[in-house]
Amino acid sequence: MSRFQIDKFISYVEGSDQAVRDYVADPEGFVAAWEERAASSRLPHPDSGTLSAEERTALVNRDHAELYRLGAHQYVLWHFVEAIRVWTGEVTWPEMKEQFRKDIAPHGTPDCST
Amino acid sequence: MAELAAILGVPHNPLLWRTMRSDPVPEDLVQTRANFTRFADAIDAADVDVLVVVGSDHLRQFQWGNSPAFCIGKTERFACTFENEIRTFGLEPWEMIGDPELASWLLGDAELQPEIDFAMSNEWVLDHSFTLPAKFLTPDLDIPIVPIHTNANIPPIPRAERYAALGRYLRSRIEAAPFDRKVALIASGHLATEIGGPRQFLGGGSPDPEFDDLATEWMRTGDLDGAIAGCTFERLATAGNVTGQFLNFITALAAARGPASFAEGTPSRFANGPFFLWDL
């Protein structure tokens, strides 16, 4: 079930230009606020969730290889990476494409079921 | 009375939106452009009243909190598309007209019909799986749509047999409708394709040409049994992590009840693009 929380987070961020900007500006603060909203509500909230320690670390570090290894949905993960790295101007699309493939290669094809 | 006036299958690769509309069309996309034009002419010639588009939402409208196997959109108007698709693919915030009467008939009005347990949506933002085929085939978006989402992206996904059942049902139900409607059934999907996995954009082209050849042959020969047997979850995953969307073409094949008059996996820098057309 934990993989669901990664998918929910990266999908939420990738779905909104403002969320992309806010997350990239302060990943640690963004993740903390995400979890605080979850802790403050009994019911599932559209923009919150509780993460495991390794999920939290991967999201704070914007570590796409680790998110891939943990079983993030690959289609959503790639577009999340495009948003937070390419759209924000950190790297070019060809650079990101090559880097992403190189970084995930050691991890094979993880189970992404939730 | 209603009739199925056209059945076709096309790709919905959103990267085509920017690349294929450049002038001149890039050399590797000339055939893709020509095929879309050919299929648009077929829809035009059929003079259809509505597009029933069988596609697979890409984890935007239907996510992990609610992932129906098959869902029909029943509303007067559909907004298209999401903010991330405008940013990433350059798509535009279009709108499409719905056909609630036909949608309601396909759902089964007050009771679901026995063949398929559809979900229903009265509020649905259409993503590129629906808008790209519609925009390329009917550029003015002036023909109403009934979208049918199939879950090909979030395991567990329906088996190939269920996609065939969907196609058989759509044909029989449309032909039994007590109102006039000329319907184009458009399947939207992929041949072998990988996004976000180790084989994405590996120098262009298909990640699994052998699958593409087999898949195109199933359509060309009308081999529904072969397609069902050949489309296990494992085989589709081996062909690429989003190849499950090929299953939508099994729906078209089952509805057509025979071989396609045109079946091609059209090469491009991205993948082989599926183009299937049946004569009715």
Topology overview:
The complex is a heterodimer of chains A (114) and B (280).
Chain A: H1 2-14, H2 17-25, H3 27-39, H4 53-60, H5 64-70, H6 74-87, H7 93-104
Chain B: E1 2-11, H1 16-19, H2 30-46, E2 50-55, E3 70-73, E4 77-79, H3 83-89, E5 95-97, H4 100-107, E6 119-121, H5 128-137, E7 145-150, H6 160-175, E8 181-189, H7 209-221, H8 224-230, H9 233-239, H10 247-256, E9 262-266, E10 273-278
Helix pairs in contact in B: 6-10, 7-8
Written description of the protein model:
The complex is a heterodimer of chains A (114) and B (280). Chain A has 114 residues and is mainly alpha-helical. Helix content of chain A is 67%, strand content 0%. The model of chain B has no long low-confidence stretch (mean pLDDT 96). In chain B, helix 6 crosses helix 10 and helix 7 runs antiparallel to helix 8. Chain B is an alpha/beta fold. The chains are: A mainly alpha (114), B alpha/beta (280). At the A-B interface, helix 1, helix 6 and helix 7 of A face helix 3 of B.
Q: What attributes does this structure have?
A:
heterodimer, A: 114 residues, mainly alpha, 7 helices, 67% helix, 0% strand, globular, B: 280 residues, alpha/beta, eight-stranded mixed β-sheet, two-stranded antiparallel ribbon
In angstroms, what separates the terminal alpha carbons of chain A? 5 Å
What does the radius of gyration of chain A come to?
Answer: 14 Å
What is the overall pLDDT average of chain A? 95
Shape of chain B: globular
Look at the structure and give the mean pLDDT of chain B. Answer: 96
Number of E-type strands of chain B: 10
Residue share in helices of chain A?
55-70%
How large is the count of helical segments of chain A? 7
Counted by DSSP, the helix tally of chain B is 10
Structural class of chain B: alpha/beta
Level of helix content of chain B?
25-40%
Calculate the terminal CA-CA distance of chain B, rounded to whole Å.
16 Å
Counting helices, strands and paired strands, the structural category of chain A is mainly alpha
Largest sheet of chain A: none
What's the order of the H and E elements of chain A?
A: HHHHHHH
Strand order of the largest sheet of chain B: 6-3-7-2-8-1-10-9
